[in-house]
Amino acid sequence: MWTCITDFFTYETTKSVVVKSWTIGIINRVVQLLIITYFIGWVFVHEKAYQIRDTAIESSVMTKVKGFGLYNNRVMDVAEYVTPSQGASVFCIITKFITTENQVQGYCPESEMKFKCTHDNNCTRFLNKPGGNGLPTGRCVHFNDTLNTCEIRGWCPAEIDYIKTHPMMEVENFTIFIKNSIRFPLFNFTKGNFLPTITPQYIKACNFDHENNTYCPIFRVGDVIRYAHQNFTTLAQKGGVIGIKIGWMCDLDKSEDECNPSYSFTRLDAMSEKNSVSPGYNFRYAKYYKMDNGTDYRTLLKAYAIRFDVLVNGNAGKFNMIPTLINMVAAFTSVGVGTVLCDIILLNFLKGAEQYKAKKFEEVSDTQIENSLSSNGLYRSREFIGVEKQSNDSGAFSIGQYG
Amino acid sequence: MWTCITDFFTYETTKSVVVKSWTIGIINRVVQLLIITYFIGWVFVHEKAYQIRDTAIESSVMTKVKGFGLYNNRVMDVAEYVTPSQGASVFCIITKFITTENQVQGYCPESEMKFKCTHDNNCTRFLNKPGGNGLPTGRCVHFNDTLNTCEIRGWCPAEIDYIKTHPMMEVENFTIFIKNSIRFPLFNFTKGNFLPTITPQYIKACNFDHENNTYCPIFRVGDVIRYAHQNFTTLAQKGGVIGIKIGWMCDLDKSEDECNPSYSFTRLDAMSEKNSVSPGYNFRYAKYYKMDNGTDYRTLLKAYAIRFDVLVNGNAGKFNMIPTLINMVAAFTSVGVGTVLCDIILLNFLKGAEQYKAKKFEEVSDTQIENSLSSNGLYRSREFIGVEKQSNDSGAFSIGQYG
Amino acid sequence: MWTCITDFFTYETTKSVVVKSWTIGIINRVVQLLIITYFIGWVFVHEKAYQIRDTAIESSVMTKVKGFGLYNNRVMDVAEYVTPSQGASVFCIITKFITTENQVQGYCPESEMKFKCTHDNNCTRFLNKPGGNGLPTGRCVHFNDTLNTCEIRGWCPAEIDYIKTHPMMEVENFTIFIKNSIRFPLFNFTKGNFLPTITPQYIKACNFDHENNTYCPIFRVGDVIRYAHQNFTTLAQKGGVIGIKIGWMCDLDKSEDECNPSYSFTRLDAMSEKNSVSPGYNFRYAKYYKMDNGTDYRTLLKAYAIRFDVLVNGNAGKFNMIPTLINMVAAFTSVGVGTVLCDIILLNFLKGAEQYKAKKFEEVSDTQIENSLSSNGLYRSREFIGVEKQSNDSGAFSIGQYG
Q1: What are the beta bridge partners of residue A319?
Q2: Would you say A296 and A289 are in contact if contact means Cβ atoms under 8 Å apart?
Q3: How far apart are CA C94 and CA C237, in angstroms?
């Protein structure tokens, strides 16, 4: 029993060969230096491996658009050109309307040239695949003095969506006010994009730009579009989707004041620029009214809009013992990897490689063991330890064993 | 000083015992082969560990529904059955309406049987927990010729939501057009689900299916529901939520043309199928009108709808030096793990295990050290190195030291 | 060739020194024990490193608010105070309205004191920066008997948003019903927040609380606000954003019944509490009407609301061979790290450190090698192995090599 315990409380360490050679010594220390530099410089300083990180940011976005536009001789305000109205992180500013007033359920001619007809027979082919503005009836009816088109059943009159209209150019000067609160649940750290340094006076006057007002939460639509490398007129004409990205990269080991938002802007439907199929962004909705006799009628609106998506992402780090320990262990372990390289050089390319090999490797073969066992039931270890032979292990194969 | 420098520029390598035994040699190489195969086959080829990955995809989704339905002898178009109208990634197609027209603020009887009453006393129990269609007044009033119910204050008349109506079956043939632009910010790689090979002619005619039109961005509602293993009639009757998932798994080391979307479909509110409590999906909204005298009245709509959630996820990889290096180091290190297994076999189960042990382990005990120190102040290392004894370390305990 | 094969099928193992010393033996085993305890206790049991994890939860949320409020002598129902009406994961309950009825396009005086004027000249400064309720015309007009203000063009009359109104206090007793289905795609595991143990009777009567009804999917607004540590009256007065978080932390190695949702509540726009600039949450929208002659008029509503964001996150784990293997290898490897510490103690701080050093390190210098090479072209390894010298490697430098 006692032997067991004494045998247990022993310490095993590898036997090492110390090579006093300038060549390999310098290579060895340089490789170790590189590995240590990598770990300190990249892993610890740059990647901050001593921190635990929280990327599961909790975020709340409120938006408010301000500005007045003049469109079709009417003054448009927020309640008309912003939809949905709730001021959430996704909202559309409508830049152009195609309005079809006083639609009622009934029968009327199609409005597009591709439904042109001279006889009912021209219209039967549409019966099975409705496409235009309603259910085709298969009849050819009078559209205007010069044109007959196929008849439809649905909301009448049919929308004429090929009329050219100009977008509301005042949109360029509208302002978007963004209120963003974030929380890193792991650290219970809460902050908002209204920095404590911002005064009510500053808010009233400021507009975001990348130089002097990097923390102003009010954005001119024209600026946002310009920062996203887009042209306002084209965008207002065809519609599109702009991403306003708010990034919170925070080192919570530093002062709370250094955890600030950074804004960037990009066109999200970038594909629309490249592809001619269905460019831009538009949608249809209707306002419903009732006549005195109870009949429904409506105004159909096809709206071309710029959609803004406010996207928030965050990444906060704070010192923590566990990742620090794990990465220090990884660093120590990795320093040993240099040995692989040095062994290859030492045992293959250095002058006297065979001598080094002889020094590093002791050989024992099973024939020796068998001889030793057969010659003497009671083995005599001292003897065969003396019978040493230089190993021919090539060093190239040895790579694995030293990792 | 010079000694210090020469001592510093040395190289230490472990002293090794090379065992020339077929048994252990083959085991050793086979274990190494397995580890290398695992790393090359799984880690590098399958898991592409030589790449850095970006999963923080930026995505923009636009949707447009097309089709006409006939409901209650009215033709329904997109502006009526799609809500919200903005064409975002989440939208509902309404399949069934329960309409309550001409509601005004006032007093009226409840519409449900559970509010049946014969006397005011039957109604007092509802006073503290309003449930039906308005605030209970506690009175019992005439509902129709055969029934008295409790009176409420609110929008009157009360909705009768137990009337059976048929869903709009044309929805099955409606088409959903999805425009999806994505960007992997890490690689500044932008692509859309309109592949460059898609022509305007193809778009006009195509419908997505899993065989021939895997990249057509137009989806028939009936197909989507079928691919999600649902029954259209049941879904249209009760409502539900369908997920349209777009996956972008891209290997950016390959050609850009091979980075394509893959579509999959699933029912998101799967629970609704299993559980009888509150199955399906419906919501209420109202259209507001004004009489000439300024009184508000409204049409209340209870809409049963199929909600579609377009969910985009992406994962792109590209060759990068840092993960390649890290994983190669991990691979080299792991090859050494095989030694643990081989040592256990060599030192315990092989014929001549004791001899191998003697060869591998040199023993030194503190009594020896103390003797050596006391006998001669100036230690003579050559002597006690000669005094070797076979170690009895059992090999089983040794596991740890070689890892 | 045969030599090549025999040379290949060999096994290399490190030569070790077994130190039979109580001091270092106990330190060694204690360090190993600590490392093993850490791995078993923390990595395997606590962090469940033997599982693969899925955090890419697929979730579908449906909400339904119930309750009736009395506001301005009108009964408000869901169709009026909840927006958007679709019952998605984000919805607002409006608590307060500022209503401006019968607006038409035209000219009228501003309503705010800051547009006070006595002469047209006072109004010209507003021409270039519209702020109030419409486009300024630059004229000073009669607002009421005591006040003249600058004229605007737009929807008239202008909104008076500084009138004090009381919020709808009944909101506190409204209930929010949340239906949440989740799916872990990696394990194809589907579940909902309607646990199988929940009966229709229970659902009808229950209200969520943190003690007895932790799985009831019906939440009283007042309770939610209380759990988020907010005051209902303040919140209803100014508006705000409340997050309802549903967490699904599931160990799928256990029974399916143990995978249950946990609800938590937080105020998302926490910044609003701290900062006086633009506190709360409100938005404007309008209801449009038509006169008999076709003129549009509208009711503008400024709504103060409590927005609820239902946020779902999940994390499920299940036993898998690959992470189990990887972590076991990591555990074995890490046990070896203890050696670094023990070596430092053994070679520097222990009595007889120099002897241990002599035992552990064999030295070979390039001068020896060169001598050996020059004296005899055919090297005689046995000879110079005899010429050993005690190494002076300091042990502190040795750290790297044993990792």
Answers
A1: A51
A2: yes
A3: 10
How many of the other CB atoms lie within 10 Å of CB of B334? 21
Confidence of residue A162 (pLDDT cuts 50, 70, 90): confident
Backbone angles phi, psi at B381, to 5 degrees: -60, -40
Radius of gyration of chain B (CA): 39
Q: How far apart are CA B51 and CA B53, in angstroms?
A: 6
CB contact under 8 A, B381 and C355: yes
Amino acid identity, residue C215? Y
First to last CA, chain C: 37
- Closest to A292 (Cα-Cα) out of B293, C269, C190, C101: B293
Predicted ipTM of the assembly:
0.82
Average pLDDT per block of 10 residues along chain B, 403 residues long: 82 86 87 89 87 88 93 92 91 94 93 87 80 87 89 92 88 93 90 85 88 92 95 93 94 91 90 73 93 91 94 91 83 79 83 82 79 61 41 38 34
- A69-71 and B58-66 strand pairing: unpaired
Question: Is A335 in the C-facing interface, judged by CB distances under 8 Å?
Answer: yes
Mean pLDDT of C42-63: 88
For A328, C31, C317, the CA distances from C41, given in Å and listed in that order, are 20, 15, 17
Q: Which range has highest mean pLDDT (A305-319, A371-385, B109-123, C335-349)?
A: A305-319
How many Cα atoms occupy the beta-carbon half-sphere of B253 within 13 Å?
A: 11
3-state secondary structure A140-160: EEEEECCEEEEEEEEEECCCC
On average, the pLDDT of chain C sits at 85
List chain A residues with CB under 8 Å of B287.
Answer: 288
**Tell me, what amino acid is at A91?**
F
Reported as a pLDDT band with limits 50, 70 and 90, residue C392 is very low
CA terminus-to-terminus distance, chain B: 37
Task: Report H helices in A44-86.
Answer: 78-81
Tell the residue number behind the tokens 């189960």, with chain if given: B349
Query: Looking at the partner chain, which of A6, A11, A191 has a beta carbon nearest the beta carbon of C342?
Result: A11
pTM of the model: 0.86
Which 11-40 residues of chain C touch chain A by CB within 8 A? 12-22, 24-29
At C373 the pLDDT is 73
User: CB contact, 8 Å: A385 with chain C?
Assistant: no
Residue with structure tokens 């009849």? A139
Q: Is B92 in contact with B82 (CB distance < 8 Å)?
A: yes
Helix (H, G, I), strand (E, B) or coil at A137: strand
Q: Is the pLDDT of residue A375 over 60?
A: yes
**Cα A217 to chain center, whole Å?**
22
